[in-house]
Each structure stands twice: as structure tokens, then as C-alpha cells.
Specification:
single chain, 273 residues, alpha+beta, OB fold (Dihydrolipoamide Acetyltransferase, E2P), five-stranded antiparallel sheet, 5 strands, 63% helix
């Protein structure tokens, strides 16, 4: 329903995979390694985030002009594609039949691998354009927001790594200038840091338990609940270690990247479950 925006976003992201390393390499040659990696990763990350925002906005606008109807799964069709190694990958794409407001029955194909837990005849929500009922999509997370989530992941991680290496570059330059400001925590600060660390460890371990014992038969839901809880534990560690006097920037940044990564993947798994 918004193929042009998706194509443009993927094109910009694809170009960033060429431009980012090239400019990053030039910056690294002119300045330092950390600056080069940081700038290159930020260019790639910003391109991915641009794609996520633009496609998300177009998708939101296109969905606003649609109507919801309950269709039914009628079959799965095989789709073949090639991976980066030239191997053939076979996925099953769902075909859903729906009846629009004009009374005509139509069919829409979902993304390959979607609705894998459904059987023939099961109800499936469909959203179709009010202006053109033939324009429709399966109304689950993968079909509606999967591309936005994917671009957000591919944009968010390079952005975080770019900020990390840029911060390392700034820190490196400060050390070269002889700037140093570190101090030991007071007894009260150490007590709060210890309590926060215990709480973060409890949340972190609870996430691993949820992966196996979350009361839902869906594996995606179990993984989603567990991963999001693990991510919350890592972010709690990041917050605790950021309390004054904050610990080393490099250590804290790794905690933030791990936490946000688990939260993002967990949310995607939960929504697809």
C-alpha cells in the first residue's frame, strides 16, 4: 500500500552501506580509528532510522484510510528466494480471502513465513483501502509493521555503535589533553549502587526464567517476554552504573547496547507470536 516509500527507504539504506564505510574510512585516515568507525556507523544508522520513520509515517497514513474485515486463511503458497550464498530458501506465504464493503470476494497474500500457527479456515484480520478495496494487507504485526521494525533495528544498532565509538573518540582526545575527572563513590552512593545492582540482577535472571516458564504455548511469546525482561535488567544495570560518580563510559555503553538490543528483539518476537 506504500511500496514507493519502502523502495525509497531501502534504496537510501543500501546506499548508506557503501557511503558510510567510505566516508568513515576517510575520517579515520584523517583523524583516528574511533572517529572513523563512529562516523561511518552513524551514517548507516541514520539512514536506517530515516527509513523506519518515513515508512512508518506512510504506513500510518495508509492504514488510516482503510477498513478492517475478518477474512479467512485459504491456503499457503511456496515462495523461493536465494540467500547471500546462493542457496535456495523456501518459505510458505499465506493467502487470505476477504469480502470488502462492495460484496466482492478478494484474496491477499501475506509475507512469507507469516501466520505459521494458523490452519486453513482460521479467521485472519485484513485491512483494505476504502478507495480501492483491491489494495489490502494482512493485519498482523509482521505484515503491517515488520518492515518498520526491521529498518529500526538495522538503523538503531549502527547508531548506538556510532555513538559508542564517537564517545570513545571524545574520551580518547580528553585523555590526550590531560583531562581527567574520576572519584570514588561515597558510602551512601555505594549502598544505593549495590541495591540497584541486586535489583538489576534479579530482573536479568527473571528474564531467563521467563524464556522457559512463561505461561503461554507460543514460543515467540515466551522468547519475547524473556528477552524484554533481560533487556530491562541490562538497562537497569546501565542506569545504576550511570549514577554519580558514573563508571567507565565504555562499560556503561555496552550495557545500554545489550539492553536496547534485547528489548527490540523481544518486542518483535512478542508481536509476531
Amino acid at each position: 500500500m506504500d511500496d514507493q516509500a519502502t523502495t525509497r527507504a531501502l534504496l537510501v539504506f543500501g546506499l548508506s552501506l557503501l557511503v558510510g564505510p567510505a566516508i568513515g574510512g576517510l575520517v579515520g585516515w584523517l583523524k583516528t580509528f574511533f572517529w572513523g568507525v563512529g562516523v561511518g556507523a552513524l551514517l548507516i544508522g541514520c539512514a536506517g532510522l530515516y527509513g523506519a520513520v518515513t515508512v512508518g509515517w506512510h504506513r500510518y497514513q495508509s492504514i488510516a484510510g482503510t477498513a478492517s474485515v475478518q477474512g479467512s486463511l485459504v491456503e499457503f503458497v511456496e515462495e523461493r528466494s536465494k540467500d547471500s550464498n546462493g542457496r535456495t530458501i523456501v518459505t510458505r506465504a499465506p493467502i487470505v480471502e476477504y469480502t470488502a464493503s462492495d460484496g466482492l470476494k478478494r484474496r491477499v497474500k501475506g509475507l512469507g513465513g507469516g501466520l505459521g500457527d494458523k490452519e486453513w479456515g482460521d479467521p485472519v484480520e485484513v485491512r483494505y483501502s476504502k478507495a480501492d478495496p483491491a489494495q489490502a494487507l494482512v493485519a498482523d504485526f509482521q505484515n503491517m509493521w515488520g518492515i518498520v521494525w526491521g529498518l529500526g533495528i538495522f538503523g538503531g544498532f549502527p547508531t548506538m555503535f556510532g555513538l559508542f565509538f564517537t564517545g570513545m573518540a571524545v574520551r580518547e582526545s580528553r585523555h590526550q589533553d590531560g583531562l581527567r575527572a574520576t572519584r570514588d563513590p561515597t558510602p551512601a552512593q555505594q549502598r544505593w549502587r549495590t541495591r540497584g545492582t541486586v535489583l538489576a540482577n534479579f530482573v536479568f535472571l527473571a528474564g531467563f526464567a521467563l524464556v522457559f516458564f512463561y505461561p503461554d504455548p507460543s514460543l515467540a511469546k515466551q522468547l519475547g517476554a524473556g528477552f524484554m525482561t533481560i533487556g530491562a535488567g541490562a538497562m537497569l544495570h546501565f542506569i545504576v552504573q550511570s549514577l554519580p560518580p558514573a563508571t567507565d563510559f565504555q562499560f556503561r555503553s555496552i550495557l545500554a547496547i545489550v539492553g536496547l538490543g534485547f528489548l527490540a528483539f523481544g518486542y518483535g518476537a512478542w508481536m509476531m507470536g
